[in-house]
Amino acid sequence: MVSQRKNDYFKSIKTDPGTVAGVTMKKEGKAMISKMLNMVYLIALLVCVIFLIRTIKDDRAAVVPTVNSNGTTTIEIPRIEVSASETKKFAADKFEMGFSLEIRGKDKEAVFKRISERRAVIFENVKSLDIPQSDVEQNSVDIRKEWTYRNNKRELVGYVATQNFVITVNRKIDAAALVQALSPEPDVEIRRTSAGLKDENAVQSKVIKAVGEKARSKAKEYAEGVGASLGRVLQINGEGGGVYYRPVRYRTNGLMMAKSAMMDGAAEAAMPDESAIADSVEVSASVRVTFELK
Q1: Residue of 11, 53, 151, 224 with fewest CB within 10 Å of its CB?
Q2: Considering only CA atoms, which of 216, 225, 241 is closest in space to residue 86?
Q3: Burial 46-68 (b: 16+ CB within 10 A, else e)
Q4: Residues 174, 176, 181, 182: is their CA dihedral positive or negative?
């Protein structure tokens, strides 16, 4: 009975025109969607192929085959090589001063005591100018024997004690004031004041970027002059460069300056002579860059 009903149902579907048309439309819709998706995939594939072909053509146009004398062929990329240099001057914000003490005498203990007293004078002047002691570097005291030769015999003359100092300040006026304060001291020798920069890396980075832009601008002008344009950077080499200062050498004997100050009048009342201190630093950079030509 049930089997008979199923057979009747399927027969009605086969004979019903509306049902058959619905099934046919569903099949046609699926086929249409499949065709549209295939067309989208085909268009996307064509775009990729065209892009790839253009890229290959551009790459081929960017290379030039060169036949060598031995018969081999070398593929070379059209290029242009330029060099540039840049130098900028910056105001110094760090000053390093060198001083030394030298004491002579026949008694070793007296010489050591004397150099301790003179070292205290240096630190008193440093303190009076509000310079932190952490900015004062000193090496150990060196005491050596001083000899002379008479009739092929070595005789002890006495002892020489020395000690070196490096004092760093942030202002030029402070450097000049300390030099002036220690100049009258007969046992103090003033070595040199060097102007510098607290952050050399940051300053040099500015100059390096500037010289890079200068090289690119120069290469661009050459390229445009022959109707070409710049491509990628093929090679870059930094050449030399660095931080330079021109130190004012201020080496003299303290006793001579003390006599000069006495002749001039009151040395303490005089303003510090800043002209004896270097105040600028030159930072330079050089570069050689190779660009691709298009």
Answers
A1: 151
A2: 241
A3: eeeeeeeeeeeeeeeebeeeeee
A4: positive
Output 172 or 252, whichever has higher pLDDT: 172
CATH number for the domain whose boundaries are 93-198+250-278: 3.30.70.2970
Judged by DSSP in three states, 125 sits in helix
**For the chain, what are the domain ranges?**
2-60, 93-198+250-278
> H or E stretch including 177?
helix 172-182
**Token pair belonging to 135:** 């900015």
Closest CA to 291 of 233, 250, 219, 248: 233
State the pairing for strand pair 280-293/79-91: antiparallel
Q: What is the mean pLDDT of residues 155-162?
A: 96
Model pLDDT, residue 56: 53
What's the rounded mean pLDDT across residues 264-283?
73
> Do 187 and 257 form a contact (C-beta atoms < 8 A)?
no
What is the rounded distance in angstroms from the CA atom of residue 172 to the CA atom of residue 170?
7
Whole-number Cα distances in Å, 24 to 19, 38, 69, 162, 293: 9, 21, 74, 112, 62
Instruction: Assign 25 a pLDDT band (cuts: 50, 70, 90).
Output: low
